[in-house]
Amino acid sequence: MEVTYILLSVLLVSLVSLIGILPLALKKKTNTHLLVALLSLSAGSLLGTVFLILLPESVSHGYTLGVAIYLFCGFLFMFLLEKFVHHKHAHTKQTGHGHAYHLAPLNLIGDAIHNFADGIVIAASYLASTSLGIAATIAVILHEIPQEIADYGVLIYSGLSRGRALMLNFLSATSAFLGAITGILLAGQLSGFNAFIIPFAAGNFLYIGASNLVPELHRHCSLKHTLLHTTMIILGITIIALVAVYGPAHTH
Asked: Which of 16, 252, 23 has its CA nearest to residue 153?
């Protein structure tokens, strides 16, 4: 049953990649407000998942020093991954506008790695408990919506047609299936895998929420935007809190 949940959740995450075409049907002002709201909701859900579900699940096993180390490893991994992607983007831009096409494979590779990691996290979360898996899936989906919209924009900028950009973005997202299968196999072979991957995932989510999304929100400083940010962050945390309290409590 857990494998079914894992595959369905990964399918939902992969389908989110198709939402990238949505901004084309909306006005620019609407796009801005929508993305700001989604970023705030995503930040709240990611941070809520870290502090209300992943960390409590990790420390419940009693090895708090290990949890802290693995959390830091997860945080550092996302930092280095983002450094790698940004460095390649900067290098491409320095070579001139005629090489914008090289942004496409770079973006797709980075996105595939990210989605592969998401697949591992979702699989490991469901194998730990159903509610943990649901919360991780919600957090990943809410983060992926604005991320996939941005990725689609990069592919269009690189010179790809709308249809090809959408197809390649979806194919890149399906690497989450490979990650999920890897997570299932590793959990079956390594007895301490979940004790590592859950706090590691917490470090991933903490970096994305606190170091990636929250600074982006500070670019919109008006009172209206601040109220919107606060409301959506609280909503994101509330969604995860409801899953933690009322979600399936079955553990494995």
From this structure: 23
